[in-house]
Amino acid sequence: MILLGILLFIFAEFYGIGQVMDAMGVLETLVALILIALIGIQWTKAEGIATLTGLVGKLHQNQGVGLDLVEGGLLLLAGLLFAFPGFLSDILALLLLIPFVRQLAAMLVVHYWGKKMQTRTAYTPAGEVILEGEVSHRQEFTTQVELQLPSPATEQTTPPPAVPR
After folding, report:
1. How far apart are CA 77 and CA 74, in angstroms?
2. Within 10 A of 78 (CB to CB), how many other CB atoms are there?
3. For residues 165 and 157, what is the distance between their CA atoms, to the nearest angstrom?
4. Of the four, 54, 100, 105, 119, which is 20 to 30 A from 111 by CA?
5. Are 13 and 85 spatial neighbours (Cβ–Cβ below 8 Å)?
6. What pLDDT does 130 receive?
7. Nearest-5° angle of CA 66, CA 61, CA 68?
8. What is the separation of C-alpha 69 from the centre of its chain, rounded to a whole number of angstroms?
9. Quick one: which of 105, 27, 36 has its CA closest to 72?
10. 139 vs 36, which has greater pLDDT?
11. Considering just the CA atoms, what is the radius of gyration of the chain in Å?
12. Mean pLDDT of the chain
């Protein structure tokens, strides 16, 4: 099903490029595709830096950053869509660059994958259940460890094996 969607998307991209070439001309269409890609990638870079700056600020304030990480992934997707030739992918990428649309898409992704993840249970190789949780109280503690090294006099040394020549 996913493969069919990808194939339909690629077909729609080529069809759209063909329609624009018929209306504008081949050279103008190629110039437009290249300019849109270059400008879009630079815009994506600027939005990515802004998102990263906000993420670091939230980390310093001990706030949750899950949604910001998803937004960063959506910005990566926007950059890839700009690099993919076609007008449909450029329109989708432009939509992802609008902060409100990107935040809405991030919430939808978190909601969809959150439902998927809640139904799964992970196990270690030993058969123990892995639980996810949140730390609600942190307690600082230190541990002292005594390390006893053998003295050089009691250590037995063996000569290295002889190498045949």
Report:
1. 5
2. 25
3. 24
4. 54
5. yes
6. 56
7. 20
8. 7
9. 105
10. 36
11. 28
12. 81
Residue 147 has pLDDT above 60, yes or no: no
Return the DSSP state at 126. Answer: T
d(CA 96, CA 77): 8
pLDDT score for 58: 86
What DSSP string runs through 1-48?
-HHHHHHHHHHHHHHHHHHHHHHH-HHHHHHHHHHHHHHHHHHHHHHH
Residues 86-115, buried b or exposed e (16+ Cβ, 10 A)?
bbbbbebbbebbeeeebeebbeeeeeeeee
Domain boundaries, the chain: 9-118
User: Per the structure block, which two tokens stand in for 32?
Assistant: 């437009």
Q: Hunting for tokens 């270059």 — which residue is that?
A: 38
pLDDT tens-digit series, residues 73-97: 999 999 999 998 899 999 999 999 9
Question: CA 134 to CA 131: how far, in whole Å?
Answer: 10
